[in-house]
UniProtKB/TrEMBL annotation:
Keywords: Calcium, Metal-binding, Repeat. Residues 40-75, 76-111, 112-147 form the EF-hand domain. Transmembrane segments: none annotated. It comes from the Eukaryota. It comes from Pandion haliaetus. SUPFAM superfamilies: EF-hand. One of its GO terms (molecular function) is calcium ion binding. Pfam families: EF-hand_7 (PF13499). SMART domains: EFh. This is CAPSL protein.
Amino acid sequence: QMPGTARHDREMAIQAKRNLSKTTDPVERLRLQCLARGSAGIKGLGRVFRIMDDDNSRTLDFKEFVKGLNDYAMMIDKEEAQEIFRIFDKDGSGTIDFDEFLITLRPPMSNARKEIIMQAFRKLDKTGDGVITIEDLRGVYNAKHHPKYQNGDWTEDQVFRAFLDNFDSPYDKDGKVTTEEFMNYYAGVSASIDTDVYFIIMMKNAWKL
């Protein structure tokens, strides 16, 4: 059985919704709104920004920023959006770098957590090229135990693909998982787990590390 990340994902989303009512920090509120959509929520927002970045500058001005938030159905008023924008527009240039924005939006994690996430990634990345693919999973997992494989609904490749899709942005499933995507996903899961010790045990059990 592949590591059941869906349960953590649900717990995290519920907790994010709960915490939303308690926090007044605008960046934290935006982070929680993203996480309320699950671990790929922050990545989904990044995807919206990328689509809007017509000139490929990897930056957004305020108008684009607000439009992106609205397109992604974030509940945010103009003052709050301005405040967030100002925090990220450090040099006052009137634009923000959205890679930097997404990294800051990601829930902070201790080095101990990052290290165990990377261990899991390296275990899965059989070929060692920094991307997890179906090929990699073939070397690590036995799909034959999966219930959908057993009842004939899915082929082996479909089992693997469904697994990879967990980590991928909901709108951009390409069957490849990069270090960044894996980290983003687990930053979301990590947000719902209070102690490093518990997070590390959970990861070790899930990935047999």
